[in-house]
Amino acid sequence: QVQLVESGGGLVQAGDSLSVSCAASGRTVIAYTMGWFRQAPGKEREFVAAIRWSDGSTYYTDSVKGRFTISRDNVKNMVYLRMNRLKPEDTAVYYCAAHGPYSTRWPRLSTEYAYWGQGTQVTVSS
């Protein structure tokens, strides 16, 4: 069982930066692949980025490459998403999720993630 709690969302202007955080707890959390998803009103939940606890390797969806950075702190059991040069289309509820354990894939479908946080709102004004 893995418990996830997001924090750090807010209202920013286009071009600004913002970080969201995910506190993870539970047994063998280090064995999981952690993902960030987002869901805008009226749209499906979409994959944003993922990171493996074990080695820190990362994977991004094309629309955020070069702007967003996912990272983790193995001591604090935290996962972060640093978002730079934000655009209005980045507005969404951002969710932290866990896939695994011990997976070697980079899953992009929300159905492949068993554990979810409650989400945190990010709003980017134009």
Topology:
Elements (H helix, E strand, L loop, with lengths): L1 E6 L2 E4 L4 E9 L6 E7 L6 E7 L5 E3 L7 E6 L4 E6 L8 E8 L15 E2 L3 E6 L1
Parallel strand pairs: 2-11
Antiparallel strand pairs: 1-3, 3-8, 4-5, 4-9, 5-6, 7-8, 9-10, 9-11
Short note summarizing the structure:
This protein is an all-beta fold. It is 0% helix and 51% strand.
Protein model, in words:
34% of the residues are buried. This protein is an all-beta fold and 126 residues long. Strands 2, 4, 5, 6, 9, 10 and 11 form a seven-stranded mixed β-sheet that branches. It has a four-stranded antiparallel β-sheet with strand order 1-3-8-7, with no helix packed on it. 0% of the residues lie in helices and 51% in strands.
Tally of DSSP helical segments: 0
Helix content: under 10%
Largest sheet: 7 strands, mixed
Estimate the global geometry from the Cα principal axes: globular
Query: Could you give the count of β-strands?
Result: 11
Kindly report how far apart the N and C termini lie.
Answer: 40 Å
Which tags fit this structure?
mainly beta, 126 residues, seven-stranded mixed sheet, 51% strand
